[in-house]
């Protein structure tokens, strides 16, 4: 049953996965992930490889290679238990497949291992995974605009994501955060993002570490009246991030988004009423008929006296 659930989830999202696999990053990653399999199984190439099989068949896996591949499968299954998006599932498979390929190639021939490792480093430095480009209601801050926006209106609640483009976790979380902004954004509740990989001063001021070992990326911070109210993941006294899963359900529950949204909608209505009143000034009241008649009689009497 544990294997069927991710399989059904993969089949359900297959059209979306198909679109991702057509992108250059995933095409190259797919070829690199199956590199050892292709070398070991391709006739004409595998015939010249070393093997520890008793039958001497160099075109099939030996017992040590099977053991490494089984260990890889176990690690991928453990990592994917905490994955929240299909991107993370695919990313985990690609990452650990490359790690296994490095080990297998070095074990087979040190020269092949060095060549594959060099290709992995070049690929990592030159090819980045595609960024989320879907719909969203998110304002992107810089180091010069974030403070002004947070302090502009004390009645507005801000949820700000501190992220870095190089972080796989941030890239996987992008679609989840975009969906939340589409559901909960209003005049009194707004969503923002700031790239602390680019603006180092912002990471220092708001105490979000950009180190991959800190596990603080991404970080979600709730601001009310320009002041921080809460953040996830939390950071302990030693400066280490407490493990936390960035699922949509966890964020809605921890940040009380449903309650915040209901309160923020009232602020939206108040703003709309004020705008409507400013656009349409009150019509002056007409004088009562009796008062007009009295005024008319006074004017006639005064005109007769003048005559």
Automatic annotation (TrEMBL):
The keyword Aminoacyl-tRNA synthetase does not apply. Pfam families: Thioredoxin (PF00085). The chain crosses the membrane at residues 20-39, 114-134. The keyword Cytoplasm does not apply. It comes from the Eukaryota. It is a single-pass type I membrane protein. PANTHER family: THIOREDOXIN-RELATED, THIOREDOXIN-RELATED TRANSMEMBRANE PROTEIN 2. This is Thioredoxin-related transmembrane protein 2b. It comes from Seriola lalandi dorsalis.
């Amino acid at each position: 049953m544990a294997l069927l659930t991710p399989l059904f989830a993969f089949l359900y999202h297959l059209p979306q996965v198909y679109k991702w696999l057509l992108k250059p990053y995933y095409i190259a990653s797919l070829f690199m992930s199956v590199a050892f399999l292709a070398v070991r199984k391709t006739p004409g190439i595998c015939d010249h490889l070393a093997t520890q099989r008793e039958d001497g068949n160099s075109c099939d896996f030996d017992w040590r290679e099977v053991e490494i591949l089984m260990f890889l499968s176990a690690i991928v299954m453990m990592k994917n238990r905490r994955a929240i998006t299909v991107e993370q599932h695919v990313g985990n498979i690609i990452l650990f497949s490359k790690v296994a390929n490095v080990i297998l190639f070095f074990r087979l021939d040190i020269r092949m291992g060095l060549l594959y490792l060099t290709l992995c480093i070049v690929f990592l430095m030159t090819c980045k995974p595609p960024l989320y480009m879907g719909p969203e209601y998110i304002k992107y801050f810089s180091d010069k605009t974030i403070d002004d926006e947070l302090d502009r209106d004390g009645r507005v609640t801000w949820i700000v994501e501190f992220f870095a483009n190089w972080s796989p976790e941030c890239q996987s979380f992008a679609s989840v955060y975009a969906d939340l902004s589409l559901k909960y954004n209003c005049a009194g509740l707004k969503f923002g993002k700031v790239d602390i990989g680019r603006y180092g001063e912002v990471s220092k001021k708001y105490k979000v570490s950009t180190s991959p070992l800190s596990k603080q990326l991404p970080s979600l911070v709730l601001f009310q009246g320009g002041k921080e109210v809460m953040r996830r993941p939390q950071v302990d006294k030693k400066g280490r991030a407490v493990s936390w899963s960035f699922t949509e359900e966890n964020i809605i529950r921890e940040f009380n988004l449903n309650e915040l949204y209901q309160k923020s909608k009232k602020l939206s209505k108040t703003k709309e009423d004020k705008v409507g009143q400013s656009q349409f000034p009150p019509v002056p009241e007409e004088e009562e008929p009796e008062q007009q008649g009295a005024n008319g009689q006074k004017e006639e009497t005064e005109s007769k006296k003048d005559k």
